[in-house]
């Protein structure tokens, strides 16, 4: 292939990939555009893509008629608590499993991994009754119970400890008289900053986008997460597409911005899910 | 002495996490198994053991069978649409790594995977809308006739497959990209010297070399396809606006049996069927991987 032919092919591939990328983003862009349309324009045929007379009415009425901000707050605090719990449990368990090779510890690790195969949907009904017996339905603590631990998080930290923390380092600290807890806190944790950040982003988005679990645990309007609130809002008392789009845009835009900022951590975390084999 | 002290620390450090696991994972899993062979109507306190009666009833239950078939169609449909697309796309993105748009390619494909399910489904609900949606507008302008995408049972299934694939694609592309980056460059160098074209290298080198990744991504996609719920819930409301009725999926059927029909044992049996499907798929993945390892 000549140089020019090669350049032409590369150019065609670039054009194709840019078009495909725009196609992937199109549904989200159209949703945001719809949020600014007036009711008349919303039902116009053929549909428009860029609003002719952008208006903020949809946002105003959505914020006035629904507890949208409360739902976002519920999701946010649930996701943050879940992230903290998962980072704590995964870091200590992953470290112990990697550096304390006792047989009983390996058995526990095998158990953790075995539960990872079982989808959440399989055991969520008995878990619901546990939450109910504790009187925690419609609370953030109740939601949190489903998202306290993550098998994959433990696995991720274990792999990183094995790969990046040499035994000699820990041995040296022990000879210097450091306690085990001190070693974990002052030596191990700082060295795991990268993978812990990746895990935190992964855990946050997992809780933020959860649906089936909040759907059964939060049944009161004030306890909804944003996902449940939007889903029931869409099927409940209104089918006003403009308002729905405005509400959706309020959720979508911050999470896309957060993703773009945290992209590197996120990609690292997700990419490592493929390293299992 | 030292060893014992270290062992004590390990056990104490692992204990809280293990206790949480036992409480919110292992316990409920065992409970699901236990409930699946019992009859419990949610109100009564006795839960008589009824053997496999729940399972026998399930396979004569037309609602459950519909849900099972729909879910299987969605799962396999998403896999068939996502895996080949993701592989080609990742190959092209990897090939153009040095392009100035490389960051955009990765980000634009991945964003649908991270945005919240419900707002994303909302966007597609408008696209597929029979009266107002741009999809029908496009079809009409091309001279076709408008379709009721979300109300015709077959088209609604198709719409859900499109939505789920749109979301699953980013993950698959990302995993494939990791795979492409780990491939030995020397093999491609040799192929190029032998005069192989890019397409030939993809066909005869990349596809076989990436087989373990293809297996892994396929199983992950299938398993998440079998757990589909939110997408069907939002997209496929029936004409009265009841969510998820147009396309019945397993998780929806399970939740309705537990919380609407108060048949928790029966729902647990459904959960066990879902678990069995997942175990079979995962087992098949490992079996295929091992087979490949032996043939080397």
Polypeptide structure, described:
The complex is a heterodimer of chains A (277) and B (296). Chain A is mostly helical. Chain A folds into 2 domains: 3-55, no CATH class; 61-276, MetI-like (MetI-like fold), CATH 1.10.3720.10. Chain A has 15 helices and no strands. The two termini of chain A are 38 Å apart. The mean pLDDT of chain A is 89. Chain B has 296 residues and is mainly alpha-helical. Chain B has a single domain (55-295), classed as MetI-like (MetI-like fold). Helices cover 75% and strands 0% of the residues of chain B. Chains A and B meet through α1, α4, α5, α6 and α10 of A and α1, α3, α4, α5 and α6 of B.
Give the tags.
heterodimer, A: 277 residues, MetI-like fold, B: 296 residues, mainly alpha, 0% strand
Fold topology:
The complex is a heterodimer of chains A (277) and B (296).
Chain A: H1 3-35, H2 39-42, H3 57-65, H4 68-99, H5 103-117, H6 120-133, H7 140-145, H8 151-164, H9 167-175, H10 180-191, H11 193-208, H12 212-217, H13 226-235, H14 241-261, H15 263-273
Helix pairs in contact in A: 1-14, 3-14, 4-8, 4-11, 5-8, 11-15, 13-14
Chain B: H1 2-36, H2 53-58, H3 62-95, H4 102-114, H5 117-128, H6 134-141, H7 153-182, H8 185-193, H9 198-209, H10 211-226, H11 230-235, H12 250-259, H13 264-295
Helix pairs in contact in B: 1-13, 3-7, 3-10, 4-7, 7-10, 10-13, 12-13
């Amino acid at each position: 292939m000549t140089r020019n032919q090669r350049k032409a092919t590369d150019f065609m591939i670039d054009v194709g990939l840019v078009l495909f990328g725009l196609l992937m983003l199109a549904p989200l862009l159209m949703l945001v555009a719809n949020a600014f349309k007036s009711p008349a324009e919303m039902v116009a045929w053929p549909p428009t893509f860029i609003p002719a007379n952008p208006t903020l009415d949809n946002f105003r009425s959505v914020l006035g008629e629904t507890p949208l901000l409360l739902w976002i707050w519920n999701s946010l605090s649930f996701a943050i608590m879940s992230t903290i719990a998962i980072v704590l449990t995964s870091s200590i368990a992953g470290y112990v499993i990697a550096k304390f090779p006792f047989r009983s510890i390996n058995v526990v690790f095998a158990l953790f991994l075995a539960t990872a195969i079982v989808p959440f949907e399989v055991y969520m009904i008995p878990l619901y009754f546990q939450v109910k017996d504790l009187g925690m339905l419609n609370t953030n603590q109740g939601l949190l119970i489903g998202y306290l631990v993550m098998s994959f998080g433990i696995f991720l930290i274990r792999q990183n400890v094995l790969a990046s923390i040499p035994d000699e380092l820990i041995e040296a600290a022990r000879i210097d008289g450091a306690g085990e807890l001190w070693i974990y806190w002052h030596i191990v944790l700082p060295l795991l900053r990268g993978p812990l950040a990746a895990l935190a982003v992964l855990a946050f988005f997992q809780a933020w986008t959860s649906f089936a679990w909040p759907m059964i645990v939060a049944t009161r309007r004030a306890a909804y997460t944003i996902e449940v609130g939007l889903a029931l809002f869409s099927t409940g008392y209104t089918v006003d597409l403009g308002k729905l789009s405005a509400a959706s845009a309020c959720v979508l835009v911050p999470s896309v911005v957060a993703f773009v900022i945290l992209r590197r951590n996120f990609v690292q975390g997700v990419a490592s899910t493929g390293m299992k084999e | 002495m030292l060893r014992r002290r270290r062992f004590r620390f390990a056990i104490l450090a692992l204990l809280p996490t293990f206790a949480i696991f036992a409480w919110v994972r292992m316990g409920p899993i065992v409970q699901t198994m236990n409930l699946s062979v019992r009859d419990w109507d949610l109100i009564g306190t006795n839960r008589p053991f009824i053997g496999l009666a729940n399972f026998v009833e399930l396979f004569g239950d037309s609602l459950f069978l519909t849900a099972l078939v729909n879910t299987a169609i969605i799962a396999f449909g998403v896999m068939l649409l996502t895996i080949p697309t993701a592989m080609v796309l990742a190959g092209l993105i990897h090939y153009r790594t040095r392009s100035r748009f490389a960051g955009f390619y990765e980000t634009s494909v991945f964003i649908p995977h991270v945005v919240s399910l419900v707002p994303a489904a909302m966007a597609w609900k408008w696209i597929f809308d029979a009266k107002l949606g741009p999809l029908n507008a496009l079809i009409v302008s091309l001279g076709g006739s408008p379709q009721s995408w979300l109300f015709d049972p077959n088209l609604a299934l198709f719409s859900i497959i499109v939505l789920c694939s749109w979301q699953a694609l980013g993950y698959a592309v990302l995993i494939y990209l990791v795979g492409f980056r780990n491939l030995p460059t020397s093999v491609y160098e040799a192929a190029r010297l032998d005069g192989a074209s890019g397409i030939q290298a993809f066909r005869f080198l990349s596809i076989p070399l990436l087989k373990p990744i293809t297996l892994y991504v396929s199983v992950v996609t299938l398993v998440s396809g079998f757990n589909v719920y939110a997408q069907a819930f939002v997209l496929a409301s029936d004409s009265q606006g009841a969510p998820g009725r147009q396309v019945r999926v397993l998780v929806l059927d399970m939740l309705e049996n537990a919380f609407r029909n108060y048949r928790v044992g029966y729902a647990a049996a459904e959960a066990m069927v879902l678990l069995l499907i997942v175990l079979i798929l995962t087992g098949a993945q490992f079996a295929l991987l091992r087979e490949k390892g032996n043939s080397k």
